[in-house]
What does this fold into?
Amino acid sequence: MTPFRVTATDGNARAGVLTTAHGEVPTPVFMPVGTKATVKTLDPDEVRDLGARIILGNTYHLFFRPGDELIRDLGGLHRFMGWSGPILTDSGGFQVFSLRDTIARVDDDGVTFRSVYDGAPTRFTPELSARIQANLGSDVAMCLDHVPPVGIPRRKLEDAVRRTTEWARRQRHAERAEGQLRFGITQGGVDEELRRRSTEEIAELDFDGNAIGGLAIGEDRGAMFEATDRAAALMPAGKPRYFMGIGDPEGVLEVIEAGVDMFDCVLPTRTARTGSALTREGRLNLRNARYARDQGPLDEGCACPACRRFTRAYIRHLVNQREVLGLRLLSVHNLRFLVDLASGARAAIERGAFASYKRDWLERLT
Ligand SMILES: [Zn+2]
It folds into this structure.
């Protein structure tokens, strides 16, 4: 059985369906991030009702707290967190390498670092990442990758590419949960040749899907989109393509246009924590005094529970008083915003109208 099928194309953009052990996922799809086995402040039913079809879990954090073996013993991550839909777990690589001060040593076997929780020395290898994700029982497991920072010398970027392929080769044969899909991750920054090399090497290993890693971490945006265009074009057309970590509307539309099928970002919940709403007219900071008497919804075009029922003035009040409900309503709305953006893109691709869908969005946002 092939886990992915493309159902429509429009230019390079595609609509498709990813089939997992816990259900089908129509693409393009935005995946809410549930780092610590929770999409922050939301009940799984709320996450499902706002249209999310697949969520992310985090290997790094769940390994330390509460522990992947505990979760396995309690029936796996789905049962543990009360979410019956598909779950994708990242490999832990991004967290290890973005908590740069905690890294003790990177070598070809793995990476040694101090836990962000208690400083305990820890070593991640491709085999351990596979085992943690097998214990969690996610539907899609990711390969451990070496994520270098922006602006390192090319020689070091090349090292990261080589190591990422080597680790992927090992993880390919490592354990996995029953029915669990496994995606490879490419590196190479915005370097054309290295990104190409990484993409070809990972594609050759024949994973169930392929991800673009190591972008959207502070490099020039134009260069990032060019690198994404080139990388997506080199990825196998019959497999899902996942851009790791993008959530601003412009970025999302750009990567979908390049042929990306899946993406995730903490932006919706992080933005909520700053008291801001993502809207079709741009970002709205509820702390601004101009909303004190505003009787309108967060976003005129949105049908989420927060917009159907509550005014900007009320949500502004909750945000200013640091009431939990304010955070929850903003999270619901912001997640719905991205879920809608992706499902709208899917519908536009099916109509052959993605270009005008994107143009309309960008005109309103600017
Ligand atoms: Zn809304």
User: Anything to note?
Assistant: The longest helix spans residues 324-351. The CA atoms of residues 10 and 351 lie 8 Å apart. The first strand starts at residue 4 and ends at 10. The pocket of zinc ion is lined by residues 298-299, 302, 304, 306-307, 333, 336 (CB under 6 Å).
